[in-house]
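DM from R.C. (forwarded with permission)

"hey, sorry to bug you on a friday — could you get me a structure for this? deadline for the figure draft is monday and I only need the backbone to look sensible"
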Amino acid sequence: MLLPIAPAWSAPRSAPTRSASGTIVLLRGLEYLSITEFARRFDLKAVWLTPGKRVLLSKPGLRIEFEVDAREAEFNGLRILMGDAARMYRRSLYISRIDAEHFFSPMVEPGYGRSAKPSVKVIALDAGHGGKDKGKTNDRLKVNEKTFTLDVVLRLKKMLEAEGYRVVLTRSDDRFVELEDRPAIAQKAGADLFVSVHFNSVATRAESVTGLEVFSMTPQYQFSTDDSTHEATADARIFNPGNTNDTWNALLGYSLHRELITGLKVPDRGHKRARFKVLRLAPCPAVLVEAGYLSNDTEARKIALPAYRQEIADAIARGIRKYATAVSEAQR
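My reply, with the result:
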């Protein structure tokens, strides 16, 4: 069990309260749940890896590592970016209630706390950018994002249709589609799943930045991964259509993240949160994949290879299969 250590900071202003999640305390204005209670809920063993610094929750086939005062965690070796940092209170580590219920619980036990399971029959695939919008470019190699995203999506569509899924595309050729129209296309088609494919770029340190990241919708009242402030914002308070599927978004993001990182063997830039318009307005579980950096010449040359783009499509397809299986087996 967790070894006691001195609390790192002052007590909350309000007394602990009970909820269906367990004992909730208010820390820095946010609701937090004890790691001990979370571990008990899912029959996980909790131990300090580094006393007062890093905690491991585990059982056969599952490892979660948290670090005090950090938003970053590890889930089965994958990099996870939480909405709020883990905190110490009265000699125990706590994680935010939203992270516990909307992020980790559905990854640990798909369907936990949900009375209904989504279907996985109709899949919407979104090739980022298009037409007048080239997306990210590498002018040195004369390549652009819009061409590669469409190629990956067309490869993925072929595989998924061969497996019996109905697939709808937000674009099937080099045309411009407004961001809000992309989830609208998915909604009109009755999509059960939305996957948006992109490639990334940075303006500085281009030759040192590589890898892959996956985004799912930021839950209400939380900050997105790239938010630079911890002050309350109007965006964080809004409940968006994409928040209807927070728990399934987390499971879908994890399923694709795992298959992409293990399959492509690229640096893991994390499962992150964002309020991108296509995620905000998504009518079904949704994820956005940034499958590599075109700003890095070495990685861009690899992405330019048809065989590698097939590997990306293969990994996404495996992730969708894993998600569909997990949904099918989810406990009600």
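R.C.: lifesaver. The chain has a mean pLDDT of 91.
me: no worries. Residues 17-108 form a domain with the Copper Amine Oxidase; Chain A, domain 1 fold (CATH 3.30.457.10).
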